[in-house]
Design goal:
Layout: E1 21-24, E2 27-30, H1 75-90, H2 103-112, H3 137-149, H4 154-196, H5 198-203, H6 210-223, H7 227-232, H8 239-251, H9 269-277, H10 292-311
Antiparallel strand pairs: 1-2
Helix pairs in contact: 6-8, 9-10
């Protein structure tokens, strides 16, 4: 008995259309999925073997955008890249050390990074030295030990040594500049004392000029053998030190001051002479320096002594 609706009219059968299906003349047909045109690999290469502009379109989607492919323009470049990659895979390798690595592990790593076989194998030929700068052999040997212990290769050794040379040179230049500034400030203060009458009030008319004060300072230092000590301590440009020594010189009688005596010669006159004459910043070359007269007398005494020795 056929099913009926409440009104007695039979319910028509329903047809469900599935995706990719069409109804034609009462028949159900399935449409094939849309197809993407396959990449034509024949268009990848030009007549000269170079890759076309869109050659990457034929590669798997995941690697098309790799930047390492930017420089691949032809088959030769591709083959060359592959060969280098294979060589790298087969090259000698060393593990990166960590906190658990042994001394042997670190030594192998340093060796792989170019550390020489021994500390004495480091050379200084690659370090350009500024004019007038020489390397201290003992200090260089100490640095060789340090470099070897810390795995330096020759390039690292050169860079570190050059940096240290530059650092020392910069410090020396800064020290010279500071000494010159102090010297200028001291002269200015002494000139001010001379103009204001401060020197006259302290030393009297006999030592009332700046030149007289400097002369008395030099004499006092020579009397007590303080010249070299003051020089090493950096006091030759110091205003307070000069005034103090001048005060001592002014309080001494002329007969007790060795201003006209020859300075005491060092145990190595030749070395002392080279030390003075070989330094263009020495007071010997600066007539305005408080130590100029003393240095001239010292050089004269050394030369005189050498001349007398040669006559014997």
């Amino acid at each position: 008995m056929p099913e009926t609706l409440l009104n007695g009219t039979p319910e028509p059968a329903q047809t469900v259309v599935q995706p990719n299906q069409t109804i034609t003349g009462g028949e159900q047909k399935t449409n094939p999925p849309p197809q993407t045109a396959p990449f034509d690999f024949k268009t990848m290469l030009g007549d000269a073997g170079e890759f076309s502009a869109n050659w990457r379109d034929g590669l798997p989607e995941g690697i098309r955008g790799e930047r390492c492919l930017d420089n691949i323009k032809n088959i030769g470049a591709l083959a060359n890249s592959y060969v280098h990659a294979q060589r790298a895979i087969g090259a000698n390798k060393v593990a990166l050390p960590n906190e658990n690595s042994t001394e042997e592990d670190w030594a192998a790593f340093y060796k792989a990074c170019g550390r020489p076989d021994g500390e004495n194998d480091y050379t200084t030929d690659g370090v350009k030295l500024p004019e007038g700068i020489t390397l201290d052999a003992d200090k260089v040997n100490e640095f060789r030990k340090f470099a070897f212990a810390n795995g330096f290769n020759q390039k690292m050794f050169n860079a570190a040594l050059a940096f240290d040379v530059e650092r020392v040179q910069r410090q020396s230049a800064e020290a010279e500049a500071a000494a010159q500034v102090e010297y200028n400030e001291t002269l200015t203060k002494l000139k001010t004392d001379e103009t204001s009458g401060e020197l006259r009030r302290q030393y009297g008319n006999d030592f009332a000029t700046m030149d007289a004060v400097i002369k008395q300072c030099n004499k006092a230092m020579q009397t007590f053998g303080l010249t070299e000590v003051a020089a090493k301590a950096g006091l030759l440009n110091n205003y307070q030190f000069i005034r103090a020594m001048a005060g001592i010189g002014a309080s001494m009688s002329e007969s007790r001051i060795k201003g006209n005596d020859a300075p005491h010669l060092t145990s190595d006159p030749d070395a002392r002479l080279n030390e003075i004459l070989g330094n263009m910043n020495d007071p010997y070359y600066n007539k305005e320096h408080p130590m100029h007269e003393a240095r001239v007398r010292e050089v004269t005494s050394i030369l005189t002594a050498k001349a007398n020795a040669n006559k014997k």
